[in-house]
Amino acid sequence: MSSSEATGGLRLGLRANLAQFTLLVAVNALVGGMLGQERTVLPLLADRAFGLTAYTAALTFIVAFGATKAATNYIAGTLCDRFGRKPVLVVGWLIGLPVPLLLIWAPSWGWVIAANVLLGLNQGLTWSTTVIMKIDLVGPRRRGLAMGLNEAAGYLAVAATALATGYLAARYGLRPEPFYLGIAFAALGLGLSTLAVRETRGHARLEAASHTARPDGRHDHLHAELSNRKVFTQTSFHEPALSAASQAGMVNNLNDGLAWGLFPVLFAAAGLSVARIGVLAALYPAVWGLGQLVTGALSDRTGRKPWITGGMLLQGAALALVAAGDTFGVWAAAVVLLGAGTAMVYPTLLAAIGDVAHPVWRARSVGVYRLWRDGGFAVGALAAGLLADAFGLRAAVWVVAALTAASGLLVAARMYETHPRVTSGTPG
């Protein structure tokens, strides 16, 4: 899994950089834990502690989080190119330190919104940077595996923390005990990032020096030196694979924003206990996280496009099952399918971006993609809240199910296969 190329003691490949790669997987698990502390508790806190009965008002914390994270993702890619990866990672953890404390002490919903702005900054800087650093380290051959491991660590931590906070909330109450986990995650993340993580920008320069053009000439117009504006327009609109990935990422997180903000409320309205809601809130990211250990690596062999198309269609079907269901068993099956569909899509989209973007501007392209993807949190929360207020919870889920399926069909029509080893006929 390693490259024979070496410059100044640096080598590309998973095996050659295993210690740092493993450390970054652990750091990203802590990043995911920071997000997981909210998944079960905060939607219930909006209703029971702050009396927010309108769905749109209750979902403002996800809108604040998603909008901030999306913008920060874009900035993170540029900052990583300008100042290096490690400083951006450390600053992200410093910003995350106050989040659990604000959630514990919040006397009004405005404080919760402020905490989620800080959480968006934290997630945008830290998660984006760990993605970029892992892509730097592994080189082109095992990008799917690297992204699978990265996203699996993050979302398994989301699942474990959602389950743990559900248990703590059922036993001790919605505050403060569930948020003690966030304090520990932030302290550990900052310590490891400051003391143990090493800079990886040199690995990207090494790959750029040995970068070879795609045999079919498809990327010949994507030169090594592109302006920020050009990177934005290519990733967002012009380049077929990059733009198809960006819209699919946005719709994926649109339905995740729905799941985060409205699923606990829907399940509670059906009479499920807090503990059972916690199980459902954990089951979805658990399947999502575990599945990525398989799907990312398989996309290195079979290509990216089939996983992305199939995953979006499976998510649409799973959301339809949530909308139609009314028992714990049906909902458990639905969230398992939703997690499986998301696992098919999530690491594969990142790997596709890495396939197409030149190493010189790849960090910026990842930032643009993640701008669109995590903007889906804000769009999804706002749209789902408005639809739920106007037409009911289930109608909101049906609409998002249809949008998700349509996104999969758009990928099928617009995206080409991006993995160079698959398109060239070379075995994986």
From TrEMBL:
<keyword id="KW-0472">Membrane</keyword>
<feature type="transmembrane region" description="Helical">
    <location>
        <begin position="55"/>
        <end position="76"/>
    </location>
</feature>
<keyword id="KW-0812">Transmembrane</keyword>
<dbReference type="InterPro" id="IPR020846">
    <property type="entry name" value="MFS_dom"/>
</dbReference>
<protein>
    <submittedName>
        <fullName>MFS transporter</fullName>
    </submittedName>
</protein>
<keyword id="KW-0813">Transport</keyword>
<feature type="transmembrane region" description="Helical">
    <location>
        <begin position="306"/>
        <end position="324"/>
    </location>
</feature>
<feature type="transmembrane region" description="Helical">
    <location>
        <begin position="153"/>
        <end position="173"/>
    </location>
</feature>
<dbReference type="InterPro" id="IPR050171">
    <property type="entry name" value="MFS_Transporters"/>
</dbReference>
<feature type="transmembrane region" description="Helical">
    <location>
        <begin position="12"/>
        <end position="35"/>
    </location>
</feature>
<keyword id="KW-1133">Transmembrane helix</keyword>
<dbReference type="Pfam" id="PF07690">
    <property type="entry name" value="MFS_1"/>
</dbReference>
<feature type="transmembrane region" description="Helical">
    <location>
        <begin position="257"/>
        <end position="275"/>
    </location>
</feature>
<dbReference type="InterPro" id="IPR036259">
    <property type="entry name" value="MFS_trans_sf"/>
</dbReference>
<feature type="domain" description="Major facilitator superfamily (MFS) profile">
    <location>
        <begin position="12"/>
        <end position="419"/>
    </location>
</feature>
<keyword id="KW-1003">Cell membrane</keyword>
<dbReference type="GO" id="GO:0022857">
    <property type="term" value="F:transmembrane transporter activity"/>
</dbReference>
<feature type="transmembrane region" description="Helical">
    <location>
        <begin position="111"/>
        <end position="132"/>
    </location>
</feature>
<feature type="transmembrane region" description="Helical">
    <location>
        <begin position="88"/>
        <end position="105"/>
    </location>
</feature>
<feature type="transmembrane region" description="Helical">
    <location>
        <begin position="395"/>
        <end position="413"/>
    </location>
</feature>
<feature type="transmembrane region" description="Helical">
    <location>
        <begin position="330"/>
        <end position="350"/>
    </location>
</feature>
<dbReference type="InterPro" id="IPR011701">
    <property type="entry name" value="MFS"/>
</dbReference>
<dbReference type="GO" id="GO:0005886">
    <property type="term" value="C:plasma membrane"/>
</dbReference>
<feature type="transmembrane region" description="Helical">
    <location>
        <begin position="179"/>
        <end position="197"/>
    </location>
</feature>
